Amino acid sequence: MMQPKTVLIISTLDTKREETRYLKYKFKDIDVLPLLMDLSMRGKEKSRAELTPSQVASAGGSTIEEINNSKERSTITNIIIDGATKIAKDLYAAGKIDGIMAIGGSTGSLMATDVMRALPFGIPKLMISSTAALPGLSTKYIGTSDILLFHSVIEIAGVTDMLTNVMDRACYAMKGMIKYVDNPLNTRHKKTIAMTMLGPCEQCASSVRTALEKEGYQVTGFSAAGVGDRAMEDMIAQGFFQGVIDLAPGGVGEHYFGFMRDGGPDRLESAGKKGIPQIISTCSVNHMTPSRSKYKKEFYKRRKYDLDKFRTWLRLSPDELKDVALEFARKLNEAKAPVKIMVPLRGWSSVDCEGSATYDPKEDRIFIDTLKNSLDARIEIIEVDANMEDSRFSLQVTKSAMELF
User: Same CATH topology for 6-180 and 191-404?
Assistant: First the structure.
C-alpha cells in the first residue's frame, strides 16, 4: 500500500484548540497524516502538537519563556514566524510534507501565510480564514504565492455544524490536491521560459510564445501589472526557468517612482543573479501609472492614453526616461549571464504608435542613448525598425531567443 500523504497544519492551540483538533482527526479519518505546528505565544497549557511553540521559538532564535514574558508583540510575532518558516522549509526540503494548511483569524492568517509564502510554487497551500474577505487583507495573505484562501464566513470559534462543514470541505480539497497533483513540481528537464505579458504587447507575446512552443520550449506568461512581475522574479530565483523574455519591464520605473504597477525592488535582477539569459524589451517603459488619488498638478498636463475608464497611462518626461534607463543599466550590469535588449523604434506597444498622443520616438531616443552609454559593452542592444506589435519585431525576438536559450 502507498504511504499516506502528510499535511502540515499550522494553528494556535491557545485560541483554536478544539477546532484544530477536529481538523487533525478529520485528516486521519480520510487517510492523510496530519503534522501539527503550534504557533501559540501565550499558551498556558502544555501543547499537544508534534511541533510545539518551544520548538518554533528555538528555531527562531529565542525561547518560549522569552516569548511568553515579552510585551513586544511585533518582535515576538516575527520570531515565531521565522522559526515556523525555517521548520516548514526544512520539512519540505526533506520530503516530509506534501501540503500545508492553516486555520485562523486575522493574526493567525497573517502568521500562517507568511510561512506558506516561503514555500515554493506547486506545493498545495490552503488557508482557512474568517477574515479572508476583509478589504486589503487577502492581498497581504496571498502576496505572490499560490495560496488558496478558504473563507470560513463564520468566526472560527466552537466546533459547530457550520464550521465542521467548512473544515470538512477544506480537508477533502487538500486531500485531492496532494493525491492527484504531482508535487514537487519539476520542470528542470524542459526548456522553460518566463515571459512578461501585457495587453498592449499581447500580439507580440502570443506570436513569440507560439513560435517557441513549436520548437519544444515551454513558455510561462506573467501579467506585468505589478503582482505578476514580483511573482515571476520570485519563481526565477527559485530556479523554475532557464531563460527570460521580459517584454514589459515597466515595473522597474513604477517601483522607482512609486506608481501602481510597482514590480518590486528585485525587478529585473533575479535572472541576472541566477545566471540565466535574458531578452529585455520596452513595452510600457515610457509610460507611468500613478494612482489618480496621488496625481500631482503637472500630471494633468501630461500626454496620456486612456486604456479604459479605470486605467490611464501618462508619458514619462525626458528626465524620467533618463532615470529609468540608469536603473535598467544598474540592474542589468550585474547579470551573470548573457543579456540582449531589443528596442522597437516605431513604438514600444500598441498604445505607443503613430497617431497616439503619447507617441514620441525622439524622446524615446533619450532612454536608448542613456542605456547605451551606461551598459557594459557585453550587453547587446538590438534596434528593430518596427512597432512592438509588428510581426517583424516578434520574429526578431523569436530568433534572438533561439540563439540565446
Answer: yes
Cα–Cα separations (whole angstroms), residue 285 to 230, 248, 250, 325, 328:
16, 7, 4, 9, 10
* Cα–Cα distance, 230 to 194 (Å, whole number): 12
Q: Which residues contact 142 (CB under 8 A, 6 or more apart)?
A: 113, 149
Q: Hey, what's the cell of 274?
A: 541566477
Alpha helices in 118-216 (DSSP H): 137-142, 161-180, 202-214
Name the average pLDDT for the chain.
94
Q: If residue 151 lies in a helix (H) or strand (E), which one and from where to where? A: strand 148-151
Neighbouring CB atoms inside 10 A of 216's CB total 8
Q: How far apart are CA 178 and CA 98, in angstroms?
A: 6
- Write the pLDDT tens digit of every residue in 77-135: 999 999 999 999 999 999 999 999 999 999 999 999 999 999 999 999 999 999 999 98
For residues 20 and 153, give the distance between their C-alpha atoms in angstroms, rounded to a whole number: 17
The model's confidence at residue 182, banded by pLDDT at 50, 70 and 90, is confident
Mean pLDDT of 195-217: 96
Whether domain 6-180 has CATH 3.50.50.60: the reply is: no
Residue ranges of domains in the chain? 6-180, 191-404
Q: Which of 41-45, 79-83, 150-154, 223-227 is the least confident region?
A: 41-45
Question: How far is the C-alpha of 165 from the C-alpha of 187, rounded, in Å?
Answer: 36
pLDDT for 189: 54
**CA 405 to each of CA 238, 243, 249: distance values in angstroms, whole numbers, following the listed order:** 18, 6, 19
pTM higher than the cut 0.85? yes
DSSP of 17-73: HHHHHHHHHHHHHTT-EEEEEE--SS--SPP-SSB-HHHHHHHTTS-HHHHHH---H
CATH code given to domain 191-404: 3.40.50.12030
